[in-house]
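Recall that a protein's primary structure is simply its ordered list of amino acids. Everything else, from secondary elements to tertiary packing, is in principle encoded there. The following example makes that idea concrete.
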Amino acid sequence: MKNRGNVIVRTLPQNQLLVARKVMKSVTIFVIGVLAGIASVLAFFLLSSNNTEVWKATVDLQSSNGVVIPAGTELVVKDYMPEGFVALTLSVNVEGEELEAFEKTVSNKNNLRIPVWVQKSN
């Protein structure tokens, strides 16, 4: 302790001062990290969209094997592909005895997609 006039000033030894600086640096870095994490999560929720893009066929479409998608059918956008096409999904619901018309196989691939290319029907 040092006496400066009527005020007594307590000084820390050099090693305690270094420890205090390291602790403050660690706390500051921790707080900055927490704030950056909170900002990232908030930005994700604010910038993500809950909308689903739906396209409606305006003409009959036909695949190369003869499957016809009639005009008015709604398809959901799955992905915009970098090659320049859009991957659309169509949900087909089948129940009851109609299920017997299908052959079921199991694939070990996640996100398996079997693309069907369509063009305007004649």
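The chain has a mean pLDDT of 85. The chain has one helix and eight strands.
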